[in-house]
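Hey, can you fold this one?
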Amino acid sequence: MLSIGQLKMSVAGRVLFENASLQVNYGDRVALVGPNGAGKSTLFSIILGRRTPDEGTVERDPWTMIGFLPQEGEAVGEETVLEVATGRAGELPRLEKRLKELEAAGSVDSPEYMETHAKFDALNDPQVEAKAKKMLKGLGYKETDFDRFAKEMSGGWVMRAHLARLLVMEPDLLLLDEPTNHLDLLSLLWLQEYLSHYAGAVLLISHDRQFMDEIITQVHEIADRKLIGYTGNYSAYLQQREDRYEQQNAAFKNQQKEIQALQEFADRFRSVASKASQAMSKLKQIERMELLEKPTPPRKPFRIQIPTPPRGGQRAISLEAIYMAYGKNVVYSGLDLTVERGERTVLVGPNGSGKSTLLKIIAGVVEAQEGVRNLGHNAKLGYFSQHRADSLDPNKNVIEEVLASAPALREDEARAVLGSFMFRKEEIYKPTTVLSGGEKSRLNLIKFLVDPPNLLLMDEPTTHLDITTVESLTMALERYEGTLLFISHDVHFIRRLATKVLHVNNGRVLPYAGGYDYFLEKIGAGNDPRAALTTA
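Sure. Predicted structure:
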């Protein structure tokens, strides 16, 4: 289906990878991993023919249809959500135009023509609308959303509509770049289930460890300018990578010892006439050796020491008789909720059930139309929202933002923390306005970690973070001594942190005094946690 051979690619004079080879066959489930900037998205661009490598080949089966989901969605005009998902407004006209161009150029036998025609036929299928509605529902849309203009919705929701269209076409090979970034827990579980039974092949870039563990059977890592393959899911890859490093490091050390011994013999006896020939033989033996490179140890999560927040009262916060509605849509009526000191609580439930609204009411960002919000004694509240940029000062650079959030912090301490969160020396002076989504997330996290509140509210904190940073954040929050209330679609993150679950659904908030697996057991989730989360 796809064969990459001896690929080399440089960007701005820096070699991303060389002698890289990869083969994807029908039915394969492959993850492409590596730190930010390693070249994962660049490799996708090469596969798609959008960039030309310095060296090497990319060979595709001419009958293979490739579908690509980028990290950022295409601009939308006046089309509805359903028109985006069926391709009627944007994709179909584009495909038809390209077919005519290829026909006029006499390229009807080209692989591009065959692939374009296959996509055009898939979106012209009589069942395309029914399939699109099924995909949209799975990804969290309500039927009332189908005829809404896509431009009225957030970028994350538009991305879901583009993903629905991609799945409707059923490509032979799906290229997915961070497909879970804009999904909630329910839609992620739906996509996970869908891809685990997908007939075609999947090549994806993801920072969601649990998602990869559930569907992936191969991992290819870009590291040290190499593309290294491993068999199994993400957890298996971590163990194999550690074993590989230990073996390489042992081989390197043994060779260095051998070289040292040979060199010492040569240095000692080269001036001794009876042993001079032996000494020269030892030096030639060193010259003939294929020298091993010192292996780079796998990147490890970094440990951040979070200062102890001020101690609050036993009751961190409480809500009484809360009423909240948007127009005729009543989200909560008569809601009572108490959050106790030290609880680590995750909010779960279907899309649109009011999880983010509840978090905003608790944070004081949104004022309920009726009811009382009572902060506990000595409560110091911090709210980490999905809209990271809103809490950054556009007039400050990175290090100024950190120092302003914790006046007692020394500059050298701020530099050390920033370095741990992958802000390199020159990057700490970047204005906050030019930071990427991932950089904004990391900077906001640092602000919370250097001056932690005793009541921390987090809405999807792992979005745009790579796996190592997510693990570092998880480890930091495990040691956090305050009260934590969060929303997340990262199941691994939830399992590590949550000791209590609030199930939000149909205006009710039901508490479960246990972790995520305890909650699933209590609601009878069985093999279908998504269905149980929706109906329980």
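The CA atoms of residues 315 and 340 lie 5 Å apart. Let me know if you want another pass with a different chain boundary.
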